[in-house]
Design a protein that fits this description.
Length: about 575
């Protein structure tokens, strides 16, 4: 249970969700102007929208990015704020649509839980969204693993052939947290079962097909990107792509339905597009371009989030997604809480709900770094403080006055406890910015013409405030290969811990002057970016000692303890 600002006991998210009388999804579609022939229903309350992009309408929409300060145990409420802001905008008479990522089953049954918002700012039906939804993740998993099987089959029949592959870089995926699958041997027990190979599994959100899925702007673009996936190297050292295998059509076929954005509704009957779900610490952390553009095409305001802090999802949204999509936010909302700030000020976790102005002052340096980062991109920033009943007026006033000094706007958000009404102040602040400030182009962190190592260095020094980068042996070898393949022309996606600006999760707050060590570089040729792996990044997470699966159940026809 959670206490809201009036000290009343709130119901759980799933209890609140079940009390809402959902509108038939066709009614939600009609509200935003989706034609009946564009709607592919998946039951009564969710559907896919097969729309044609209207770039003129998209250009007229006001895109709002929601990101957050550095994550920690207290959380910040980024998805809840995104939903609340859309509800608040609708409350004040604006036509607003939220675009979010789909939750991954691994975290849902692991430690993080679902990703459908919370309290009175949720997207519904939350059980469906947090579980199998419309099957997009299953389609991506199937596409990824079908490709893996086809690669192994090619290798099997070309094992004594010069056209065989010396190295395969493609891995299988599952949408579960399973540490036992990270490293394994396949093809054992005789030649009829394949070729013995060291391999392993990643989690589905880490698949390059997930990244492609979220960056594709059309079916033709999806096919082209899949054709360009690098799957290995031949014995003469030349690269081998999906187009060389000749199976791009089969992979596209598995994604033909999944590629259309999913339409659902907020707890207050507003439209929401939920589509795709790459993690921001190992991928680019944004929902699909097609969903974001759908929200822009059908909405006067489109609210979308980027995963984890502004140094991860926010940076990748602005440097990778916006470049690929040709879009730019009119304003950025930075989400935080007093508890999160205090943790960055090294206040004991047990004491973060108690008044502590000095701890707040120490931790606000983390907020400052995120504001400065976003302002570097040319963004006008609103700091959204998710308010709790234990927050003091002294602490709130301090944060508000501090924001004025830093050239940032400030608004309290009470969307969790009050829904759209609790986000009206934030919505009005966003509208004020959009209507009174000329739209600015994004000032990107690096130029596309910069070499890969220069792009990485600029992110590290400008965004993280590190002083240097070093490359491990594997990274140096990969860098040479990437340059040979023309990868210098691609943007960079740094894979690192979400808990720190550094590559060390223990260094909270706003560290400066550190080195980032790049362990490896991976060319995601189909997605169109180079992944720079910094530190120990698990592409297949494990389960905690007491996973959420221990309490999730199906009792008397209802799911319980899903959050």
């Amino acid at each position: 249970m959670t206490l809201n600002n009036t000290k009343q006991i709130m119901k759980s998210d799933i209890e609140i969700a079940r009390e809402v009388k959902l509108e038939p999804i066709q009614n939600i579609a009609v509200k935003i102007g989706v034609n009946e022939d564009q709607l592919e229903q998946y039951g009564k309350y969710k559907a896919k929208v097969a729309y044609q992009m209207d770039e003129a309408k998209i250009a007229q929409s006001n895109l709002i990015l929601v990101t957050a300060t550095t994550p920690n145990k207290s959380g910040s409420g980024k998805t809840t704020t995104s939903v609340a802001l859309a509800q608040g905008l609708n409350k004040i008479g604006k036509k607003a649509i939220v675009a979010l990522r789909e939750p991954s089953l691994g975290p849902v049954f692991g430690m993080k839980g679902g990703a459908a918002g919370g309290g009175y700012s949720q997207v519904l039906p939350m059980e469906d969204i947090n579980l199998h939804f419309t099957g997009d993740f299953h389609a991506i998993t199937s596409a990824n693993n079908t490709l893996a099987a086809l690669i192994d089959n090619y290798q099997y029949f070309n094992k004594n052939n010069p056209n065989g592959l010396k190295q395969i870089v493609w891995r299988r995926v599952l949408d579960v947290n399973d540490r036992s699958l990270r490293y394994m041997l396949s093809g054992l027990n005789g030649s009829s079962n394949g070729i013995p190979t060291e391999t392993g599994f990643d989690i589905t959100p880490a698949s390059e097909i997930m990244a492609i899925f979220c960056l594709a702007t059309s079916m033709d673009d999806l096919r082209k990107r899949i054709e360009n996936i690098l799957i290995g190297y031949k014995y003469d050292g030349t690269p081998f792509y999906v187009k060389d295998l000749g199976v791009a059509g089969a992979i596209v076929t598995l994604l033909k339905d999944a590629v259309n954005p999913n339409l659902v509704q907020t707890i207050e009957g507003g439209a929401a597009f939920i589509h795709g779900g790459p993690f921001a610490n190992i991928a680019h952390g944004c929902n699909s371009i097609m969903a974001t553009k759908a929200a822009m095409q059908f909405g006067e305001y489109a609210v979308t989030e980027a995963g984890f802090g502004s140094d991860l999802g926010g940076e990748k949204f602005l440097n990778i997604k916006c470049r690929a999509a040709g879009i730019a936010p009119k304003a950025t909302v930075l989400v935080t809480t007093t508890q999160s700030i205090k943790l960055h000020g090294k206040v004991d976790e047990k004491l973060i709900k108690q008044p502590n102005l000095e701890g707040l002052k120490a931790g606000i340096k983390n907020v400052e770094r995120h504001i400065e980062n976003l302002q570097q991109f040319g963004q006008t920033v609103v700091l959204a403080l998710n308010k709790f009943g234990f927050d003091t007026e002294e602490e709130i006033s301090y944060i508000e006055n501090w924001c004025k000094e830093k050239g940032a706007h400030f608004a309290i958000n009470e969307g969790f406890a009050k829904g759209g009404e609790g986000a009206v102040a934030l919505a009005k602040k966003v509208v004020e910015i959009v209507e009174n400030n000329p739209s600015k182009p994004i000032i990107h962190t690096y130029e596309m013409a910069d070499p890969i190592e220069e792009k990485i260095k600029k992110i590290v020094t400008k965004i993280y405030k590190g002083s240097s980068i070093t490359f491990g042996k594997n990274a140096k070898t990969a860098l040479k290969k990437i340059k040979e393949l023309g990868g210098d022309a691609m943007p960079v996606c740094i894979a690192k811990t979400q808990f720190s600006f550094t590559d060390n999760a223990a260094l909270v707050g706003a560290a400066e002057g550190f080195n980032i060590h790049i362990e490896n570089l991976v060319i995601n040729n189909g997605a169109g970016f180079v992944v720079a792996v910094a530190g120990e990044i698990m592409r297949m997470p494990g389960l905690p000692k007491e996973p959420a699966a221990n309490i999730i159940d199906f009792v008397n026809g209802e799911i319980v303890n899903l959050s």
